Amino acid sequence: MAAQALYAELARQLNAIGILRRGLLRALPTDCPSGPAATLSLLHRHGEMRVGRLGELLAIDMSVTSRHVAHTVDRGWVERVRDPADRRSRILRLTPAGAAKLTELHDRTAEMFSHRLDGWSDGEVEDLIAMLTRLRDSFGADCRVPLPVSAAPAAASAASATTPAPPAPPAPPAPRELPHDHA
Description:
Layout: H1 4-26, H2 34-46, H3 51-58, H4 62-74, E1 78-83, E2 86-94, H5 96-116, H6 122-138, H7 158-162
Antiparallel strand pairs: 1-2
C-alpha cells in the first residue's frame, strides 16, 4: 500500500488532470460544447436510450439533460423516436450526421493529443492508457459514485483505535465523460 504522501501527490496530479480536461472541453467547437458532445458520445457507446437514462449516465439533472438533447436534435445529430415498448415515450437515437460530428470531435481531439504528446513513444501512451484504465476500474463500474471510507486497518494498535480519526476529506466532484472517452 502506498504511503499517505503518495496518495496526496496522486490527488494533486488528478486535480491537474481535471484542469487539463476542462481546457480540452473549452477547445471543443462552439457548435458542439461539452454537454452535447458527451450526449453524442454516450449515444454512440450505449445505443438508443430514453432521456432519463442519458441524464443518469451524464450525472446531471433532467433540465440540463433536456437542453443538451435539444441542442443535438436542433442540429440533426440526434433524433427522438417513439419507444416501441411504450408509445408515449421517446427514445434518443444518434443520426448519421451525429456520428459524423462525433468522428470530427474524436479526430480533433486525437490531433490535439498527437501534437501535445509528440515526444512520447507509442509505448508510453499505451502505458498511460493502461494505468488510467486501471485507475478507473479501481473505482468500479460507475466511477462517479464516491467509495465509502474504509475502516481502520485491523493491525492498528488499541491506542490508535481509541483516538478519533480525522474527518475524511470531501469526495471530489463527479467526473463527466469526455467526448473522446472510451469505456
